[in-house]
Design a protein that fits this description.
mainly beta; binds thymidine-5'-diphosphate; 1 helix; 12 strands
Length: about 140
């Protein structure tokens, strides 16, 4: 699948296979993760099939998102193009740049999301209103 949404890219993490001893997957800042990592968070316990997360964009923070267990769908919107992507492999993630509206749905019961972020949490850099997002994108 090719991404047509701006400020987004697939990330493929290298896998080191150890046969019966499992798989080790590695991510380095300024390497597979294209920024300095200041924050990591993870999301789990997504047992409600109607769960919706995201519904926002970031003005300054860049993120890299992985589904390290299970699967879910993420709808990306750069203000012009929209695209839905399914994340279902632990080593295949998405780079989410600035000004990218995203909505996450269809989480499997066992789903665990792992997110790397380029800065500390700051509610002021979030855009949580879609019309404000469109207005700000238009002015970029
Ligand atoms: P939010 O970013 O809206 O989650 P999602 O995009 O997955 O729906 O954050 C949910 C809540 O958690 C919100 O009250 C802010 C808080 N939060 C922090 O306190 N620190 C963080 O690093 C993050 C990501 C969220």
């Amino acid at each position: 699948m090719t991404l047509k949404v701006k400020n987004s890219a697939f990330i493929n993490l290298p896998k080191i296979k150890d046969g019966r001893d499992g798989i080790l997957c590695v991510a380095e800042q300024n390497n597979q993760i294209p920024f300095e990592i200041k924050r990591v968070f993870f999301i789990y316990d997504l047992h409600d099939n109607s769960a919706i997360r995201g519904k926002h964009a970031h003005r300054t923070v860049e993120q890299a998102i992985f589904c390290i267990r299970g699967d879910f769908e993420i709808q990306l919107d750069d203000g012009q193009n929209k695209q839905s992507v399914k994340l279902e492999k632990p080593n295949e993630g998405l780079y989410l740049g600035r000004y990218l509206w995203n909505v996450m749905t269809k989480f499997s019961d066992d789903c665990i999301l792992l997110v790397f972020a380029s800065d500390f949490y700051d509610e002021n850099e979030y855009i949580r209103d879609y019309q404000v997002f469109i207005d700000e994108v238009d002015k970029l």
